[in-house]
Amino acid sequence: MRVRSLLAVGALLAFLALLDLAAPRVLNPYYVTILSRIGIAVIAAASLQLVNGFTGQFSIGHAGFMAIGAYASAALSVYAGAAALDAASQIVPLTAARWLYFPVLLVFGGLVAAVSGIVVAVPALRLRGDYLAIATLGAGEIIRIAILNIDAVGGARGFSLASSAHPGIDLRYESLAGVFGVAALTVATLARLVYAGGGLAFRAVREDEIAAESIGIATTRVKIEAFLVASFFAGVAGALFAHSEGYIHTNSFGFVRSFELVAFVVLGGLGSLTGAILAAATLTALPELLRGLGEWRMILYSLLLIATMLLRPQGLLGQRELWPISLLSRGTK
Amino acid sequence: MSLLEIHGLSVRFGGLSAVSRVDFEVEAGSLVALIGPNGAGKTTAFNVVTGVYAPSDGSVVFAGREIGGAAPHAISALGIARTFQNIRLFRSLSALENVRAALQGARRSGLRDVLRLARWRAREEAAGREARVLLDELALGEFASARADSLPYGEQRRLEIARALATRPKLLLLDEPAAGMNPAEKQALRELIRRLRADHGLTIVLIDHDVSFVMNLCDRVVVLDHGEKIADGPPDRVRRDPHVIEAYLGSDATVAP
After folding, report:
1. B129 with B239, same domain?
2. B101 touches chain A (CB under 8 A)
3. Total tally of structural domains belonging to chain B
4. Percent of chain A topping pLDDT 90
5. Residue from the list A201, A210, A217 with its beta carbon closest to the beta carbon of B88
6. SS3 B230
7. To 10 degrees, the CA torsion angle through B153, B155, B161, B166?
8. A211 touches chain B (CB under 8 A)
9. DSSP assignment, residue A89?
10. Range of the domain at B123
């Protein structure tokens, strides 16, 4: 078992390295950008699935936490990261320093988002159903508008990662390996969390809160945990987004983005990580693939959404998982 | 010694008094029935004991500790488990997962679930075995991987009991376990309750509508009507109690000998 997991991790790393070396040569930058956005969408959708699909709390403000992760990590990079990298490059090669800094900026973005997630969750989770949804929508908008008014991160001009004090330091990461590596780590973490004996608490809360309480599950704590983990990974996704785009604006994190994430989890199937991943990948790629249709593009996109919901109201996968996550999901059965 | 003591318990919802000034005690190891017509306040009493409602007045003492108004999950951790009148299973989870959720309830592991070290694996396997033993004990073994809402009605009721037992309770509250059952099933249920009480050293309080089901099962019967206690004692005495007869049948009725 141990050997097999090591082999799997090794194979994944080799694939990622190959991806990083080959992709820029084979694909034009437009496709690389789309692939990178798919990876980021997967992280955000999988994390939202924990709250909406597994814990049954309907949050529609997830983009707000992405915004926090994006802006917090970008601010870290511009105000401290660039200087730190400049100093470190005197000792180690700049490339090595940049890759050491990469996890730092992701974890920082995630942690700041997680803290804000708790700040939102503690009061908001006193609400249920539609009321919770509206509260999270409001929280997401408050976050966006608050950031819009902070001049230190560019305000309405948007925030660029080009650092004027350290012009030689590139803070952008155009690495598919980085994005997909983090996506794999995120999905593996969430799957292990949910498909374990302890993870049954999330699903028990979704199924019946009163019954869950009656068997000793502290439902409020479980909901806050779900929110905490989900907003952490949303923050990581935001940090990845900021550092792969190199420029961020609050418009990228409005309620349209939040709704898009909700569409991913609902369309994929509430309670299926694989479903969220498939839907996030498909629906991120689809508008690009439909570009040839000009102004009919978004109409067709919407019609496809409507048709899917009519034909499969439970989502693409319902609550099922596909390989390799199904290996974990069968464990608790 | 009394395991559960209820003193002067009142529950009001706005102007409606669901339970008013009710006292009763449950001795450790006993099997007590709580009966009464519809709307008598039986389930409300259960809901207060399990923390779903806070008492408006009065006290609920379990194993020497005041639990009135405590959170349901905290009360569960103290050793009170229950089933529900309208079955409340985790519908889309398997029968085994329903029981495992209760085994795990109090001890969530978070980071350990993510890391999955050797000790974690051993603990998960032990929990899986324990859940299977409970399913087998309630003759649900063959349904282990079936979705809870796909089970036949009687099996769903037993699964609720298995889930309650998984919390390792001292006191088990059964809310109308015999509802919707025919006489043969009721008889089997009586046997089951006796067996579980003996095997798990349980104290049991069960709710039912009528005296006949609990007659040769319970040690004591407490009768509620319109939120007040009208009788309390051994089943055969309660059955002859004029207040009880009046509550069930009206004031002119008499009981056939």
Report:
1. no
2. yes
3. 2
4. 61
5. A210
6. strand
7. -140
8. yes
9. T
10. 92-155
Which pair of structure tokens corresponds to residue B11? 């529950």
Residue B256 lies in a domain: no
Same domain, B66 and B183: yes
Q: Under a CB-based contact definition with an 8 Å cutoff, are residues B192 and B181 in contact?
A: no
pLDDT of residue B125: 87
Residues 264-283 of A with CB under 8 A from B: 271
Q: How far is A332 from chain B (nearest CA, A)?
A: 7
Q: What is the DSSP letter of B224?
A: E
Residue B160, in any domain of the structure: no
| B213 contacts B35 by C-beta, under 8 angstroms | no
Give chain A's domains with CATH numbers: 2-329 (1.10.3470)
The answer on B234 and B178 residing in a single domain is yes
Tally A–B CB contacts below 8 A.
Answer: 117
pTM: 0.91
| Mean pLDDT over the full length of chain A | 90
Structure tokens at A256: 């349209």
- The three-state secondary structure class of B247 is helix
**Distance of CA A37 to CAs A41, A179, A299, Å?**
6, 9, 22
Predicted confidence (pLDDT) per residue in A165-224, tens digit: 787 788 888 888 899 999 999 999 999 999 988 889 999 999 999 999 999 999 999 999
For residue B23, with 0-12 CB atoms within 10 Å meaning exposed, 13-18 middle and 19 or more buried, which class applies?
middle
DSSP-derived secondary structure letter, A185: H
B154 in contact with chain A, both atoms CB, cutoff 8 A: no
Burial of A123 (0-12, 13-18, 19+ CB in 10 A): exposed
Q: Which of B191, B209, B219 has its CA nearest to residue B247? A: B209
Q: Do A215 and B108 touch (CB under 8 A)?
A: no
Q: A43: how many CB neighbours lie within 10 A of its CB?
A: 29
Q: Is B90 on the interface with A (CB under 8 A)?
A: yes
Query: Residue B65 pairs with which residues in a beta bridge?
Result: B62
Please tell me which residue, B61 or B1, carries the higher pLDDT value.
B61
A288 three-class SS: helix
In a domain, B65, yes or no: yes
CATH number at residue B27: 3.40.50.300
Same domain, yes or no: B58 and B176: yes
Chain B interface, best mutation among A192, A200, A320, A327, by max B CB count within 10 A: A200
